[in-house]
Write a structure and sequence with these properties.
By secondary structure, this protein is mainly alpha-helical. It has eight helices and no strands. The longest helix has 18 residues.
């Protein structure tokens, strides 16, 4: 039996292959325009031409969708075991176009266990650096310096 066999397909309509890209593109445009707090999954669905339930089938939360976008737009490109490289890569992430979005996710993680787990996973590639170095970068981001 092949995977395209209709008898093996789940309930409902099949997923549109383009929907993932349309959802990610709509969400990224909203993040760039207004940041994390302004991102609305209702509006992402409207702009992507899909139902909000289609988003939730792919990503369980707004934070999960945003983490996926950050990973795609700002993939860590360093040797994770090298401290200085990890610090520099984290600095680039936080100073980049989505740095404010990452800071917002970190803030939300203080009140949501689900978001905390997402943030821990998102920041795992940077853990080769010590907490003091990463904390200093976050603090500079907070102060805008």
């Amino acid at each position: 039996m092949t995977t395209n066999d209709p008898s093996r397909r789940g309930r409902g309509r099949p997923r549109r292959a383009e929907a993932d890209a349309e959802i990610l593109d709509a969400a990224l445009a909203m993040l760039r325009a207004g940041g994390y707090r302004e991102l609305s999954l209702d509006e992402v669905a409207r702009r992507a031409g899909t139902a909000k339930s289609s988003i939730y089938r792919r990503w369980p939360s707004k934070a999960a969708l945003v983490a996926e976008i950050v990973r795609r737009e700002s993939p860590p490109q360093h040797d994770a075991s090298h401290r200085d490289a990890a610090v520099r890569a984290f600095e680039i992430l936080m100073d980049g176009a989505l740095g404010g979005v990452v800071a917002s996710l970190i803030g939300e993680a203080q009140e949501s266990e689900e978001t905390r787990a997402i943030v821990i996973d998102l920041l795992a590639p940077y853990r080769g650096a010590d907490d003091a170095a990463l904390g200093a970068i976050l603090f500079r981001r907070l102060l805008g310096t």
